Amino acid sequence: MSETKGSTVISWEIGVVQMSADEALAASVEKKDGRRSELLEIAKTLIADMMRDGVVRAAEVEKAAAERGISPKTLRNARNALRVVSRKDGVGYLWVAPQGEQLEMSDEVPF
């Protein structure tokens, strides 16, 4: 954006944009260590904290994420980044840590 005679002007790129709005916004806040989104990091920490015993009900994590303003897509991205497996049981879905691994986050992110 630039100002011209007291007005704000938006300059659009020429050509087709090759990314979604979410990707563009995430890129604009990219951290030096490559993290793309603060909410993604919060979601990863939430999942790791809730999975300290290795297994948690998906509905519990989804509810906690929604209470923190984390979208289902961001939660799914965090789950995938942590390689958490979703398994159906008789009641619903369970999230299971990758076999033989303990989920841990090195950075503490406040909720």
List keywords for this structure.
single chain, alpha+beta, Arc Repressor Mutant, subunit A, 3-stranded antiparallel β-sheet, two-stranded antiparallel sheet, 4 helices, 37% helix
Mean pLDDT: 77
Please give the number of β-strands.
5
CATH architecture label name of the domain at 38-100: Orthogonal Bundle
Strand portion: 15-25%
The CATH class designation of the domain at 38-100 is: Mainly Alpha
Our count of helices gives 4
What does the main sheet amount to? Answer: 3 strands, antiparallel
CATH-derived topology of the domain at 38-100? Arc Repressor Mutant, subunit A
Strands of the widest sheet, in order across it, are 3-5-4
What is the alpha-carbon Rg in Å?
18 Å
State the end-to-end CA separation: 33 Å
Oligomer: single chain
Q: Low-confidence parts, pLDDT < 50 over ≥5 residues?
A: 106-111
**What sequence of helices (H) and strands (E) makes up the elements?**
EEHHEHHEE
Shape: elongated
The helix/strand class is alpha+beta
Question: Percentage of helical residues?
Answer: 25-40%
